[in-house]
Amino acid sequence: MNRSVKAIAFDLEGTLVDLERAHFQAHLDAASELGLHLTLERAIEEIPAFVWGPKIEIARSIQSRRRKDMDLYHLLNRMKHFYGKRQVKAVLT
């Protein structure tokens, strides 16, 4: 069987689809769900790890500003959930 490849396409996360905004908005959505309503500008200013820091540090910062009794791993899962929704939306638009 002799097949030739006509084309290959791949994305290096940001080359074709900019997912940076999806990451940021997912963190803001998770914070909002806890009652902590931040603008992107305020989050960047108040949460040092917000821009490409480890997600665990972002979650800890959100947790410390809102509900210290909130399970950290639940918050991380909510961030992941919102990112998945935003990622699909970014790819489809």
Helices, by number, come to 4
**Structural class by secondary-structure content:** mainly alpha
Euclidean distance between termini CA atoms: 37 Å
- Describe the global form: elongated
Domains (count) = 1
Concise summary:
The chain is mainly α. It has one domain. It contains four helices and no strands.
Structure in words:
α1 packs across α4 and α3 crosses α4. The protein is mostly helical and 93 residues long. It has one domain. The model has no long low-confidence stretch (mean pLDDT 84). It has 4 helices and no strands. Helix content is 57%, strand content 0%.
Strands, helices and their partners?
Elements: H1 20-33, H2 40-46, H3 55-65, H4 72-92
Helix pairs in contact: 1-4, 3-4
Q: Which descriptors apply to this entry?
A:
4 helices; single chain; elongated
